[in-house]
User: What shape does this take?
Amino acid sequence: MATLALFAVGILGGVVAHAVLDRGPAENPYPALPKVDEPRAAHDVVAAVGSDDAQALSRMLDSTMLTDLDTALQPIVDVRTTKFVGAVESEGRLLSAYVVTGKTTEGIDFVVGFVLRVSNDQVVGVN
Amino acid sequence: MVGLRRLIAGSAGTLLVGMFAGFVLASAVGVFIQDSGLFGASGESPIARAYMLGLLQRDPNSIVGIRPNQSIAQRAAELQGADTSRTTTSIQPLSLTYIGGASVGSYSVHIYAVGLRTAQGVDQFFPLALTVSGGKVVRSE
Assistant: This one.
């Protein structure tokens, strides 16, 4: 019983130590933009990526953007999941951000992030 | 006397194991809460934030410990660039927004939107995705 109590006290101490050491991000001295909903055009592009639909993707992005998307997805060659993480807008320019998980050519699990630039309801760039 | 020593050693060991378990548990729960966005957590990594602030404030020294090792020539060139940039005040940061991120194993990705005003008065708005692993930013694009 005493051993269990000591163990519990230890766990509590560990939690407190973590809370003290884990301070979180530093304060952001710059203004942050409000989040907006996911743009439809960007959603369609990422849906094509997630469903491995190269034909649909070829109709939605030009060759420059396809090259940029390929670079952004490196080193993932086999996409497993796509996740919309947020979008922000500034003066009509919209950035829609995604996280993709998948496997590299060596079969290693990896995660990458990329952003679609949207303007006038169209995807106009990939970062 | 020996019995007392054993009792103290055993108790200290139990306490230490408990502390270790508590620390790991709190860390795991913290990562889960951050990634899931529960309780209003943004999921933003302190390392990613520090890196972004170092970039925007043109202070390479502040991020030297949280990015991949560079050669001395690369670091010197970067410091030169930062000095020039600071003295000419060519870039004025307008906004820094954490859009979101996620983790897989030891890798986490954090995506930011940056607003800048150039010396010509042109506003730029662009994203930056940081990959963090092992306490360092291993990829920035």
Summary: The radius of gyration of chain B is 22 Å. Chain B touches chain A through 53 residues (CB under 8 Å).
